[in-house]
Amino acid sequence: MATLNRTFRVDDFEAIARRRLPKPIFDFYAGGAEDERTLALNRDVFQRFGWTPRVMTGSGTPDLRAALLGRDAGMPVIVAPMGAVGYGCIEGDQLLGQVASDFDIPYTLSTTASTSIEQIGASVPGRKWFQLYPLKDRALMKGLIGRARACGFETLIVTVDVPVGGKRERDLRNDCSMPFRFTARNLAAFASRPAWALNLLRHGPPGMPNLSALAPASKRASSLAPSVGAEFDHAFGWAGLAEIRKQWDGPLLVKGILRPDDAERTLHAGCDGVIVSNHGGRQLDTGIPALAALAAIVSRVDGRTPVFFDGGIRRGSDIAKALCLGAAGVLVGRPLLYGVCAGGHAGASRVLTILRDELSRTMQLCGAPSVNALGEDLLRDLAGAAAAA
Ligand SMILES: Cc1cc2nc3c(=O)[nH]c(=O)nc-3n(C[C@H](O)[C@H](O)[C@H](O)COP(=O)(O)O)c2cc1C
Fold first, then answer.
1. DSSP 8-state secondary structure symbol assigned to residue 234
2. 108 beta partners
3. How many CB atoms lie within 10 A of CB 122?
4. What is the pLDDT of residues 42-92, one digit of tens each?
5. Annotation-wise, does 360 bind a ligand?
6. Which CATH number does the domain housing residue 153 bear?
7. How would you label 94-110 residue by residue, b for 16+ Cβ within 10 Å and e otherwise?
8. Which family does it belong to (predicted)?
9. Rounded distance between C-alpha atoms, residue 102 and residue 105, angstroms
10. How is the chain split among helix, strand and coil, in percent rounded to 5?
11. What ranges in 68-191 are assigned the alpha helix state H?
């Protein structure tokens, strides 16, 4: 654990994961679509905003607790849904769920997770959210919704930014396919990480147990992202969302919203919130960075529904900036994935500890005693300031 004790920022975990994982797997996690411009912009955009801190507020250690969909949480953070985590850490889904419970924050299980709804239901004591991809097979989709309800998942997230898989060229180049298979092109990469390869041989390649009914179709050998996308409903629309609304009586969030008019439509469809997200830059390249979409959506919905955010968060101060711009909470993806790949439970736990400490420190330095005190007045849009000068 000596390495973990020498991690001081969440990016350190990316470096450890890169050393531990075969290149095709690391690239599948780290990569984005096409030229990866949106992937890069998701992070860079945080530098567009600078702090204008309040001083001498006398408020002491900040209170990080926040209400997420009406329930108190340890901090305004949620574990983002991620598929294929088992390739980097066999029990990664359960471990992320357990770490989330330790920190009193919700964990989201992906439709394409390596662990079933039932396994998570039995092993994660805290808050569980389930992420649903619209599937062509409506009966299977309805079945997933029923299983999530039966296993104690409290919130359903419908992800709407994957009408087709993004063109992820790292996966094409690396011959990264699902189900897992060795090919002449990728064999050397897997052999170069013998500990990983042995583990995979011992446990067998992870599957997608929530979609096991689709196994015959998904056995087609093709590159990872497109093969998953092939099962999705490419024609999913607002009528489909209305159908899901009827099937799920708990909180329903729509993930992958970047436009105020779409956010407005989710309200009319009876949803309980949106997640401003571009899927971590993995779908439509040269789409705007997620943070740049946030303020306009918050302004449009004007408090009628909570607006969550994800994409590019690597510092506690990034979380604080998203909250200042009106997010009700943020989802964190890759940092936690790298954390669990680098050091299992301890690794993911350390990532959340670092983010929590940085968030607290930022709030104290800005004179914000609670998350509700984080407002737009604490930020200066440097791009706007430069244009005005
Ligand atoms: C490896 C990987 C798998 C993902 N799988 C899913 C998924 O199954 N469903 C989904 O809605 N989003 C998925 N996402 C997107 C994340 O939920 C989230 O939107 C994104 O990772 C946020 O950006 P960040 O990684 O910079 O935090 C995935 C992201 C990664 C990196």
1. T
2. 129
3. 12
4. 999 999 999 999 999 988 999 999 999 999 999 999 999 999 999 999 999
5. no
6. 3.20.20.70
7. bbbbbbbbebebbbbbb
8. Belongs to the FMN-dependent alpha-hydroxy acid dehydrogenase family.
9. 8
10. 50, 15, 35
11. 92-102, 117-123, 138-150, 169-174, 187-191
Ligand 1 site-directed mutation target among 82, 228, 275, most atoms within 8 Å of CB: 82
Is 31 flagged in the annotation as binding? Answer: no
Number of domains in the chain: 1
- Structure tokens of 25? 């797997």
Q: What separation in Å is there between the alpha carbon of 43 and the centre of ligand 1?
A: 14
Looking at ligand 1, which residue's alpha carbon is closest to its atom 27?
333
Ligand 1 binding pocket (C-beta < 6 A) is: 29, 42, 80-83, 110, 112, 131, 159, 255, 277, 279-280, 282, 310-313, 331-334, 337
Residue 174 pLDDT > 70, yes or no? yes
* Atom from ligand 1 closest to the CA of residue 108: 17
User: Residue 179's pLDDT band (boundaries 50, 70, 90)?
Assistant: low
Domain that holds residue 55: 2-388
Dump the DSSP string for 272-318: SEEEE--GGGTSSTTPPPHHHHHHHHHHHHTTSS-EEEES---SHHH
pLDDT in tens, 288-335: 999 999 999 999 999 999 999 999 999 999 999 999 999 999 999 999
Q: Could you give the C-alpha distances from 364 to 58, 326, 370, 381, in angstroms and in order?
A: 10, 19, 9, 21
71 CA distance to ligand 1 centroid (A)? 24
Q: Hunting for tokens 């709407």 — which residue is that?
A: 160
Nearest CA to ligand 1 atom 1: 29
Does 279 qualify as catalytic in the annotation? yes
Ligand 1 atom closest to 277 (CA): 19
Locate 382 and state its tokens: 């440097």
